């Protein structure tokens, strides 16, 4: 029997219920992880949407770090006692995974958002014996223990602070990977980042680390822009008036930015990010798009628009790379974190959605 304390989402419009649950045993290629800390990502709030009602009750959470307590018989590259960062689920065998692009796994939606294709650890059991889903992003880490696929566990050095590393598995690799893996931002170039929450600020830190000369942060929250300036933005622009934002970016860069990143998913903002590019510039969209995107003439002059999932990162190699940059002081993503105990998960969620906390991290007792 695997016991855990979990924050269970039982209805989309209700607070989390912190309760004791029993987890199913792991499958042959899975591990049990004692969760030390887990980030709160905006995607976790998506589980409240009506289209996910069929999955409830559900344990959400997918940015965790912890210690391995149990391994299935087919697991060879993760050992009991290993410290690990957990990341998204992927099959490891399809054409995308085989080509080192696991974020585009052919079964990504089923494995991460629909809780399917599990070989074990598929559910938990509440005190009354009712089932609870525990395969959100293959993790469900708003709990003191989680059953995950071994390929989703990235082993890290035991001297590293797990509460700091937890958000690497999604938000940080998404922002940093978009800059480093997808856009391949060059030294001396310019980039405009629309939305500087955790993903946008991770992108900002990565842009600074690779030597971008002009880094422009755009956001609706002045306090986020202040932090962006502290972390390396060369200019900040208060959002809200897309035409004025585009004009300001072109004023700052001459003919427009080389690169743009949209983290908001708002169609009008994506269009503005495209408009703010110079000829042959590239805009990456990493937010869940909320509505139809009308491009108009924004893609003329050889401009590119690319959608990005999880920074197109291979976590087994990219997370250690980011940790090395952090150790060297070149990627201080720990500046984005604010810690909350698991019992205060509703407070952490409100702080995240209202923009008062960049990256809440739930710390287990």
TrEMBL record:
Q: Which InterPro entries match?
A: ADH-like_C, ADH-like_N, ADH_Zn_CS, GroES-like_sf, NAD(P)-bd_dom_sf
Does the record's keyword annotation contain Oxidoreductase? yes
List, for all copies, the residue spans of the domain called Alcohol dehydrogenase-like N-terminal: 27-123
Cofactor(s) of this protein: Zn(2+)
User: What range(s) does the Alcohol dehydrogenase-like C-terminal domain occupy?
Assistant: 199-300
Which Gene3D superfamilies does the record cross-reference, listed alphabetically? Medium-chain alcohol dehydrogenases, catalytic domain (3.90.180.10), NAD(P)-binding Rossmann-like Domain (3.40.50.720)
Q: Which UniProt keywords apply?
A: Metal-binding, NAD, Oxidoreductase, Zinc
Please give the superkingdom of this protein's source.
Bacteria
CDD domains reported in the protein's UniProt record: benzyl_alcohol_DH
Q: What PANTHER family does the database record attribute to this sequence? A: ALCOHOL DEHYDROGENASE (PTHR43880), ALCOHOL DEHYDROGENASE CLASS-3 (PTHR43880:SF12)
In which family does this protein belong, per the annotation? Belongs to the zinc-containing alcohol dehydrogenase family.
Q: What is this protein called?
A: NAD(P)-dependent alcohol dehydrogenase
Q: What organism does the UniProt record list as the source?
A: Actinokineospora guangxiensis
